[in-house]
Write a structure and sequence with these properties.
Elements (H helix, E strand, L loop, with lengths): L28 H12 L8 H12 L4 H11 L3 H8 L13 E6 L2 H6 L1 H12 L5 E2 L5 E6 L11 E3 L2 E3 L4 H12 L15 H8 L15 H13 L6 H20 L1
Parallel strand pairs: 1-3
Antiparallel strand pairs: 1-4, 2-3, 4-5
């Protein structure tokens, strides 16, 4: 760890580069063909790099030198270009990731509602800190930035599926079940799959879970319900234009006084 970098700092990107000493690879002919398929989806093939890296992780369990080279060769760019992207975004891992990536939101509202307490309790129970993986390879624990679920704070995500309205006790119970092979279902979504399976979905290869479970809940729908109850609606384009014109006219009259 470089001097001055605190691994517990949730705002710090992992400083280490891709481990070039890793020579083993699980990337085979099938994976290379799927990488080409992803590249072919885009008018400018370089735009495919992000999902391609997710596919690499679905096979390798992290971004490896072989994965970097495969992406670079297919896209016709340098390995440095690929590495620059892979080491910028925190969703791309340079160390082997756990079977379940547990991200605890500790930003703003979630922190106020108990996110920090949840993280600290999980860290103590698992014996790992931010961005570290348990010795059994089951759980990688992270502090994460806003999960866009403030209406259900505090929120934890497992392989990017929501676990809403958490407490330290409920978080520990959920993670313990995962470590013992118990199937868990998101509070607002699908059954929890493995991290590698989720990475394949992020690469653009859907599984059979997309329509499982609710995608929103009463807290998220409150604004829509209030609007319906009060007869509120968004203005039409003509109404908006007329209101803007009237406001500008009023401003002009006020300025002339």
């Amino acid at each position: 760890m470089p001097p001055g970098v605190d691994i517990e700092d949730p705002n710090a990107h992992r400083p280490e580069p891709i481990d070039t000493s890793v020579t083993d690879t699980a990337i085979d002919a099938k994976t290379l063909e799927e990488l080409r398929q992803i590249a072919a989806r885009y008018p400018q093939s370089r735009s495919a790099l992000l999902p391609m890296l997710h596919l690499v992780q679905s096979v390798e369990g992290r971004v490896t030198p072989a994965g970097v080279e495969a992406c670079a060769d297919i896209l016709g760019i340098s390995s440095a270009d690929v590495s620059g992207v892979a080491t910028f975004y925190t969703m791309y891992k340079r160390r082997p990731n756990g079977e379940y990536n547990v991200g605890v939101c500790t930003t703003a509202l979630c922190a106020i509602m108990g996110g920090d307490d949840i993280f600290e309790r999980l860290s103590k129970e698992l014996g790992v800190g931010h961005d570290e993986t348990t010795p059994d390879g089951k759980i990688t624990l992270e502090r994460v930035e806003c999960n866009a679920a403030c209406d259900y704070a505090p929120v934890m995500m497992i392989n990017w599926e929501f676990m809403d309205n958490q407490s330290p006790d409920s978080a520990v119970e959920t993670v313990t079940k995962l470590r013992h092979g118990v199937e868990i279902t998101s509070t607002r979504g699908a059954r929890i799959c493995t991290w590698k399976q989720a990475e394949r979905v992020l690469a653009g290869y859907p599984d059979d879970r997309a329509d499982e479970g609710p995608t929103s809940g009463p807290a998220s729908q409150l604004g829509v319900r209030l609007a319906a109850e009060n007869g509120w609606r968004a203005p039409t384009p003509d109404e908006a234009a007329a209101a803007l014109a009237a406001a500008r006219e009023a401003e002009g009259e006020e300025g002339a006084k």
